[in-house]
Amino acid sequence: MIDYWLGGVHHHPIDVAAAGAFESAYRPCADIFRSLRAFSGRAVRQAVGEGVGQFLVFGAGVPTQANVHETAPGARVLYTDLDPRIVAVGRELLDGLDSVDYALGDVTDPNSIDPAVLDRVLPDRKRQPLGVVLFGLPAFFDDATLAGALDALYDAVPAGSRLLFDFDATELAGHPEALAMMGPAFHMREPAAFAPLLGRWTPTAEGIVPVARWLPDADTPEDVPDAFWGGVAVKQA
Ligand SMILES: C[S@@+](CC[C@H](N)C(=O)[O-])C[C@H]1O[C@@H](n2cnc3c(N)ncnc32)[C@H](O)[C@@H]1O
Predict the structure, then answer these.
(1) Which of 49, 100, 106, 234 is geometrically suited to a Cys-Cys bond with 112, CB 3.0 to 4.6 A?
(2) What class has domain 32-234?
């Protein structure tokens, strides 16, 4: 569905139908996902500018449409996802690319990624700052699970590493039909409730803001609903 909303070609009629059904309850999906992908680009470019040359992406979905390896062409990138079907699609799409791969991984279990793949794609992950990317993931978890996962990731990475994240704010509370489609385990968060979940990760000066307003390229941020907030946080030396 996200690939469809982003104008990609790696989706099926069933995805288009599901996207259409959701849009009938909540219209601005395409604008919101474009804005999210633009935020991803700005956050990844900032990380590269700060010397980050390797990224570990959780809950990556379909790795197309200005995804991390396209935004940071020289970087080493390991995409991961819990869903083996998505991992298979990702591997196919990335086949032949140097320094980029896709593996199974559960963000709530630091040991879930094949260590041989980690060693091959991210050999310096314990020595050099790593970009840890969590886009479109927090809504799957309650606060304790999310805070525990972020804490374990903090321990696993070297100082200078950066956490790039977004999360669903409470926009869909005003759209009950769309909210119902997200199912009972969908966790929206008041923005003020997210910062404490970061634990020892320190947000950068840009703060935790609606993604369109995170270091916008133009003076005027994109005019989209504040459905997703996000930011970048750092593991200090
Ligand atoms: C909403 S999609 C986000 C895709 C992409 N990150 C983006 O923002 O465009 C969420 C993805 O997270 C994956 N996922 C769900 N639970 C997960 C978990 N515990 N660990 C890793 N991935 C998970 C799903 O399979 C799905 O591909």
Answers:
(1) 106
(2) alpha beta
Do 147 and 165 touch, CB atoms closer than 8 A?
no
Q: How far is the CA of 219 from the centre of ligand 1 (A)?
A: 31
Helix axes 29-49, 13-25, angle to 10 degrees: 110
Binding site membership of 81 for ligand 1 (Cβ less than 6 Å): yes
pLDDT tens sequence across 47-77 = 999 999 999 999 999 999 999 999 999 999 9
Task: Sketch the domain layout of the chain as residue ranges.
Answer: 32-234
CA angle 28, 213, 16 (to 5 degrees): 25
CB of 229 shorter than 6 A to ligand 1: no
Q: What is the pLDDT of residues 201-230, one digit of tens each?
A: 999 999 999 999 999 988 788 899 999 999
Nearest protein CA to atom 1 of ligand 1, as residue: 136
Q: In terms of pTM, does the model score above 0.90?
A: yes
Q: Best substitution site from 10, 137, 163 to test ligand 1's pocket, by max atoms within 8 Å of Cβ?
A: 137
The CB of 117 under 6 Å from ligand 1? The reply is no
Angle (CA) 183-175-227 rounded to 5° is 85
